[in-house]
Structure formats: C-alpha cells, structure tokens
Amino acid sequence: MNVESNIATIILAAGASTRMGTPKQLLPYQGCSLLQHTVESAIASVCKPVVVVLGANAQKITSKVNLSSVRVVENPDWHLGMGSSIRRGIISLETYSHTIDAVVITVCDQPFLSPEIINHLVTAYHSTGKPIIACEYADILGVPVLFKHTLFSELITLGEMVGAKKIIKKYEKQVFSIPFPLGIIDIDTLRDYQVLLNSD
After folding, report:
1. Domain containing 144 — which CATH number?
2. A Pfam family name for this chain (predicted)?
C-alpha cells in the first residue's frame, strides 16, 4: 500500500503514570523506550501523519525520545483525562492541507503494538466500509481503534474523563473488530512492567 495516506495516527502519551511512579513513556523496552517503540510502529505503518499528544513530563520526554518524524501536540489539560488528549489530537488534524479521512487512536503502553496491527485496521476499514474498526482482546473492543472522519466531531466533544470506548459502545452495531490478543497487555504498574520484561 504505497499510496498517499489520508489516515492519521494519534498516539496518546500525555498521562502522568501515577500508578507507575515514573514516566512509563520512557521505560526501556527492546532497545528503546515504550513511546519510541509505539512511534516507530506508527511511522512504519501506512498511516500518515503521526501525531503524538504529550502532557505530563512533556519536556523530559521530548529530550529523550526522537519525535522528529511526527507532529507533537502538547495538552495542557492532560490532568483532566484521556478525552482532553483525544480532542487535542483530532483538532490538530484540521491544519493539514489534505483531508484526513480517518484516524487510528492508540496509546503508548501496549508493548505488542506493531505496524501490522495498524495496517490491519486500515485494510479492514477499506474492505468493510465500517466507520469504526476496533481491536478485540479478552472480549473487549478497544485501542488501537480506527474512526472515520464522520465521528471526529463526537471525538472532539468527548468528556475529559471519557476515552474512545464510549463511542465504540454507542455505535457497537457499526463496529468491525480485528483480533489483537496481546492488546490486553498494557503497562500501568511496576509489576506489569516486570512481568513484561520476564516474558521476553
């Protein structure tokens, strides 16, 4: 799929990692940081542009992670919740010269995210015509998730403390899912991280 992409990726990386006690964006994983791994997976996919939303620890993260190939958006309201970061990311897409048809929203703490997973979302979007393509793991529909541009206005008006799952649930009959069993693994606590390292 070497075509000009009109599907963007937004990586949500604005949280303070309070349960971890240190910025999980910077945790070492497979020779780089968790955030760098996510960024490189997004860049290697068919999606362009890639937007990274930072908030807490933004200066520390930008000094340690190579974000030269992506657009960085800072969310000063990061403490209000994930909805505020989704809003910042979606609004940033309005400044691109070409129309963005859809967006893949993902997070920085799913270590098994890959370009193939993102590309699978895009392929399913084109083949099914569904407005939402979500990943399925442990009977959950969640991120990474692709939303068609017709849902951008609802993403922008999400409540601060609400994530994208609210819209997935609202339109569940219009959702197509792809399997991502390892998507259930995310890194919220030091124990999560230790389990991940021990499984390598």
Report:
1. 3.90.550.10
2. NTP_transf_3
Q: How far apart are CA 150 and CA 96, in angstroms?
A: 17
State the CB neighbour count (10 A cutoff) for residue 168.
20
Q: Residue 89 phi/psi, 5° resolution?
A: -65, -45
Q: What is the CA radius of gyration of the chain?
A: 16
Burial readout 51-66 (b: 16 or more C-beta within 10 A, e: otherwise):
bbbbbbbbeebeeebe
**What's the whole-model pTM score?**
0.94
Question: Alpha-carbon distance 152 to 159, whole Å?
Answer: 14
Mean pLDDT per 10-residue run, the chain (200 residues)?
A: 72 91 92 96 96 96 94 95 94 86 96 97 96 96 96 90 87 96 94 89
Residue 114 lies in a domain: yes
Joined tokens for residue 97? 């010269």
